[in-house]
Amino acid sequence: MNKIKEPKGIVEQIKLQTVLLYLKISSMLLHAVHELIFRKHRSPEKILVFRTGSIGDNICAMPAIANLKRHFPDANLQLLTNAGKGLPDLVSFEALIAPGIFEKIINYENLSPKELSIILRKEQFDLVIQFSQLNAPISRMLRDMFYFRFVIGIRHGFGWMFNSPLFFKQIQEKYLHRVDERTRLNNILVQNGIPVREIDVFNCHVADTDHLKVEKALQRLPLATDRVWRWYQVQNALKTDGPSNTSRPLPGTIAVNTTYS
User: Fold this and answer.
1) All structural domains of the chain with their residue ranges
2) Which of 36, 78, 96, 152 is the most exposed place for a label (fewest CB within 10 A)?
3) Other CB atoms closer than 10 Å to residue 241's CB: what's the count?
4) CA dihedral sign, ordered 132, 136, 138, 139
5) Which string of DSSP letters, residue by residue, matches 127-144?
6) What are the C-alpha distances in Å from 245 to residues 140, 183, 204, 240, 249?
7) Is the pTM of this model over 0.85?
8) Residue 117: enclosing H or E segment and its boundaries?
């Protein structure tokens, strides 16, 4: 994160410097531990991607996953996640992502630590990539690093990037610039030698019943949204009967901006 402006008051200056110092020390610690226990892997055959969260977190991770799949087209990608099963308010990757991206999706929501460890060890992954949550504390990231390296036995990994202390949130929002989540996750790939593309249209697992729900919802909206409804009908017709329109995403896809810094 970069400073947007300098605080004026002495109290705010102290708080901001505390945040920046904590960020620097935490980042240095994560980097040192990573370099000590993990090695780089240029041609992995089996990759474990670790991403938790619900629909918003999943959508933000789609550009990075698309670029990862493009860079390792022949690799066996598997996803480790925790949302969806037994939690009706959460939408899991398994329900959202199109088939064929991941060879297997491992949802550990109802698994004991021992059961999960047995499953992961059997897979013998070459590489683990963790797309951690924006506000993940450093203690959790250190725990995950040691877990994957010494409990699961994965020798190569990356993705542990400290982003935001859990204190002085108002100071951070006021004086620090933070890139959006999609860019942040893509930057993890760039920093580890994986190129990314700026724009990607990512296929989703959208069934006919999902289209019907969207159509009914659009029909119930005020007249001001007629343009949206007509656009949806045109795009749906293009998808089934005509040439694809590259300027806008078709139903069943999500357009994502993957610009990075």
Assistant:
1) 32-197, 201-257
2) 36
3) 7
4) negative
5) EEEE---TT--HHHHHHH
6) 43, 25, 17, 12, 7
7) no
8) helix 113-123
